[in-house]
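Ticket #4471: structure output looks truncated?

Reporter: J.K.
Steps to reproduce: submitted the chain below (294 residues) through the standard prediction queue, then opened the result file.
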Amino acid sequence: MTELLKCYQGSVNQWECDENDHMNVRFFLEKAVQTLHLGLVDLGVVTLADSSRIESAVLSQHLRFLAEARSACPVHGSVGIIEVESNYLKVLVELAHGSSQKKLSTVVFELNMGSMTNRLTTISQPENAGGRGIPEKSSDYGHLNYYEALKAGFRTIGRGVVQTHEAGRNNGEMAWHQYMGRTSDSVPNLWSAAYSPETGKDRQIGRAVIEARTEFYNRLSLGDHFEVLAGMGQLADKVQQSVVRIFDIRANKPISTSTVASLLMDLSARKAIPLPPEQRRQMQPLLLQKPAVA
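Returned output as attached by the reporter:
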């Protein structure tokens, strides 16, 4: 594999960490998007003046979380081109610990960049990037409209309005990491729909995302009203998969579909634990119906 282009350096702030005392998924993605911007400009795919269109060009993203990033951790980001064909671009973004070089996360972005004239050197997609438990394909639920999603078992777990601080550089479109942020903010409402009040009292147990694939159809902009729907796709002993969909309420159009793999974590030992039988029983009503093939 050709060496990746190193282009981002930063660190984890305390305010970027969640209740599990590690960097929240939205900030993994925020640093990955900064790396993507820097890399595509440095590689000559786009000019700096034209780089604001990068986020609007994203068709899908596939995140793998490989290690925890805790407060004050130095973070370096690197980029490599996996595939290029006509308007299509497949890009790897890798975040690593700035001192140990331990891999923290990978994101594979698929983009429609329009005409590209530069000849780009490609790399092989590494084993720690792209699909593992989640296939690299369109979601089985992505074709459902709002009402079909409700019939399939999706329930509302979030509603809101895109705020000024969430708007990005491209004509007021919501900044890329904020889609993951709004998903992360909404998911506790999914768990609370299943767990008894006593379940959440044990703060030695947390839930951590290990993989997430999102495909995008439209964008949200400043002032847009949106609704977040979700349900459970799989309930295995070790890894559970949820499906999260965001809709533009006013325009009645889908924005995105995410498949998210997560697990329970012992916060003292910092290791995964199996899903207890009682929690599995409580989560059964959240399972989605398999949709008919579109």
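Triage note (M.O.): checked the attachment and the full token line is present. The first strand starts at residue 5 and ends at 11.
Status: closed, working as intended.
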